[in-house]
């Protein structure tokens, strides 16, 4: 399945979260990741993030897409991530 | 069409960007918005955001979905936005 993941983490935990997310997904920009991922790996990633995130400070949003891909992604402004790799 | 929008703005510009995005989309969490939007309104929103964002500091990512909706959205940790309104 194809997921889009966005996190909002406290500064101290960003590096850890980035590392975990990059293990399974493609880094698009700042706190945004995307990619094909198996259910097993998504469960693993969620467990790993769950260990890092502080419940009343951080958040992670995971969109699972019905189709294998979105139809368009536009980026305005700064480009920080490792995008342009998969599209 | 259905879009997911994520911004990463400098602190000074967050309030302005939030206001613009909420005019057209549903606020999910922190810097994440989603919703049905017409092409005309998306063009308007992009123009409004373009006026706010500082090119080498801020970024906005807009995903346009092929289907009218994603199949699942999961939120881990903190809930800040006005979610649970549309699903």
As laid out across the biggest beta sheet of chain A, the strand order is: 2-3-1-4
Summarize the amount of helix of chain A as a percent range. Answer: 25-40%
Question: Strand-residue fraction of chain A?
Answer: 25-35%
The outline of chain A comes out as globular
Q: Describe the main β-sheet of chain A briefly.
A: 4 strands, antiparallel
Question: What order do the helices and strands of chain A follow?
Answer: EHEEHEE
| Low-pLDDT residue spans of chain A | 83-87
Oligomeric composition of the shown chains: homodimer
Per DSSP, the total helix count of chain A is 2
Q: What gap, in angstroms, lies between the N and C termini of chain A?
A: 16 Å
CATH topology of chain A: Alpha-Beta Plaits
Mean pLDDT of chain A: 85
Class inferred from helices and paired strands of chain A: alpha+beta
> Total strand count of chain A, please?
5
Greatest interface and its participating residue counts = A-B, 38 and 38 residues
CATH class membership of chain A: Alpha Beta
Number of domains of chain A: 1
Radius of gyration of chain A: 13 Å
Q: Any idea what the CATH architecture of chain A is?
A: 2-Layer Sandwich
Family (chains A, B): Belongs to the CRISPR-associated endoribonuclease Cas2 protein family.
InterPro entries (chains A, B): CRISPR_associated_Cas2, Virulence_VapD/CRISPR_Cas2
Subunit structure (chains A, B): Homodimer, forms a heterotetramer with a Cas1 homodimer.
Enzyme class (chains A, B): hydrolase
């Amino acid at each position: 399945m194809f997921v889009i993941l966005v996190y909002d983490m406290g500064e101290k935990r960003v590096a850890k979260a980035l590392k975990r997310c990059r293990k399974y997904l493609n880094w698009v920009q700042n706190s945004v990741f995307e990619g094909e991922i198996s259910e097993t790996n998504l469960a693993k990633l969620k467990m790993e993030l769950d260990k890092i995130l502080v419940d009343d400070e951080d958040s992670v949003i995971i969109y699972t897409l019905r189709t294998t891909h979105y139809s368009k992604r536009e980026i305005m402004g700064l480009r920080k991530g490792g995008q342009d790799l998969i599209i």
